[in-house]
Each structure stands twice: as structure tokens, then as C-alpha cells.
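Ops channel
N.P.: pipeline sanity check, posting one input/output pair.
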């Protein structure tokens, strides 16, 4: 139930309240492709309204909980979606003040980044098996996850680069000059684009690179990058350079 944060008067439903607000402004947002939806640019409107959010009454709660929480409801929606496209509407509740267009847009963009956070968690858990760690003390777990996070971000960078610019030069993949050199030598292929580099790393991890296979998944990329790192270290040791120079 929502209430007026000043008087406590009941206001009706959350959806009715937020949908009755005029837009503070508009901005374009690039939408990623999905299996049933192609990539496109959506023109989004954003509004905001302060409300009081009241929890249901439960026995024993009286005098313990505040009468309501003052929050801001931000609505992000597509006023005129293309024919046949699924229209967008997000209703976000936050504890931050939203009084200007810049603040409203900032909240919308923060939520728009949620998929990237989810991808990070996939890289960390599915790709690198962070949930399979059997450490018993918190400091050890924190240290291990911290190191894994650095690698997970590198995997995300590789995946995002191939999605954004698959035909860009291989050097834009984020791999070092030495890593590219070793990968090309191992696969006996020129690997001139970011897409070819990602598929090459996938091959090291067990990806078959068939036309219908798509891009390598998190676990395959992680295994491929691990194999590549071993190859690079072996190359450095053979040259007597150790692990310090990743030229």
C-alpha cells in the first residue's frame, strides 16, 4: 500500500500513481538483441514521484516499524514502441531523491546496466565456479573471489567486444600482443578480427566452432583463457623471460 509521505493518506495503487505522472524528459537506449527480439534503439520517457511505502500490518509490529518509508518511484517507459515490438516499462523504487531530469535519467541508466551485472555474476559463478569453492573462512573466500573478479571482468570485456564490434581488428579484443601471437601460432590461423579471436579462445576451451554452435559460453571461455595463459607462460619460460614481461 502507498500513502502520501506528508499526511499518511492512502493514495491507491502504486501503478496508478506512477502512471499518472508526466515525463521529466526522454532519452534513447540501445537494446541488445534477444532470441525473439532484434537489437533496436528505444526512445524512453522517465518520470518520478515521491511516495510513502507502507508495510502490511503484522502482529507485534506496532511501535517497532516506522509508519511508512519515504521512497521515490521512477517510471521508465516507451511511449510509442514500433509496430510488433514489445513495449518497455520499468517501475523502480529507490531511496534516493529524484527531483531533476538528470537524476531521473541517472536512475534509469543504473537499472539499464543490470544485465551487465548479471553477466558478471555468470562469468564469476558459471564460468569460473566461484560457488564451488570450499573455503571455510570469510577472508579466504573474499580473497579468492577478488582475484576471480579481475578475471571475470576480462571475460566480460571479451564477450562485450565481440557483441559490439565483432569485425573490429583483433587487437581490440583486449588480449595482449604476446597473447595474440601465441594464440595465432597455436591455432595456425591469422585471427584478424575480434570474433575470430573469441572463437579461437573458445577452441582452446573445447568449443567446436561449428556454424550452428554460436559463441563460446562462459565456462568454455574461462577454460580457453586458462589454456592460453599456460601457453604464454611456457613461451616466456622457453625464452628465459619468466612471467614478468607480457609484451
Amino acid at each position: 500500500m502507498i500513502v502520501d509521505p506528508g499526511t499518511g493518506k492512502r493514495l491507491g495503487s502504486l501503478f496508478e500513481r506512477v502512471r499518472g505522472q508526466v515525463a521529466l524528459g526522454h532519452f534513447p537506449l540501445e537494446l541488445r538483441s534477444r532470441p525473439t527480439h532484434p537489437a533496436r534503439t528505444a526512445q524512453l520517457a522517465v518520470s518520478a514521484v515521491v511516495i510513502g511505502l507502507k508495510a502490511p500490518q503484522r502482529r507485534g509490529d506496532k511501535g517497532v516499524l516506522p509508519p511508512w518509508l519515504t521512497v521515490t518511484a521512477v517510471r521508465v517507459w516507451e511511449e510509442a514502441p514500433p509496430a510488433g515490438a514489445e513495449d518497455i516499462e520499468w517501475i523502480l523504487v529507490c531511496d534516493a531523491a529524484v527531483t531533476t531530469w538528470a537524476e531521473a535519467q541517472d536512475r534509469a541508466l543504473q537499472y539499464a546496466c543490470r544485465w551487465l551485472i548479471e553477466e558478471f555474476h555468470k562469468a564469476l559463478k558459471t564460468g569460473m565456479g566461484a560457488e564451488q569453492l570450499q573455503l571455510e573462512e570469510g577472508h579466504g573466500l573474499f580473497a579468492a573471489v577478488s582475484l576471480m573478479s579481475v578475471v571475470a571482468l576480462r571475460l566480460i570485456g571479451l564477450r562485450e567486444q565481440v557483441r559490439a564490434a565483432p569485425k573490429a581488428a583483433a587487437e581490440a579484443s583486449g588480449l595482449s600482443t604476446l597473447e595474440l601471437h601465441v594464440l595465432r601460432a597455436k591455432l595456425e590461423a591469422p585471427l584478424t578480427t575480434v570474433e575470430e579471436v573469441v572463437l579461437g579462445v573458445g577452441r582452446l576451451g573445447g568449443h567446436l566452432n561449428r556454424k550452428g554452435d554460436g559463441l563460446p559460453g562462459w565456462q568454455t571461455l574461462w577454460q580457453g583463457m586458462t589454456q592460453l595463459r599456460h601457453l604464454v607462460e611456457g613461451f616466456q619460460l622457453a625464452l628465459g623471460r619468466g612471467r614478468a614481461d607480457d609484451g
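N.P.: looks fine end to end. Helices lie at 14-19, 101-112, 114-127, 138-164, 177-187, 194-204, 218-238.
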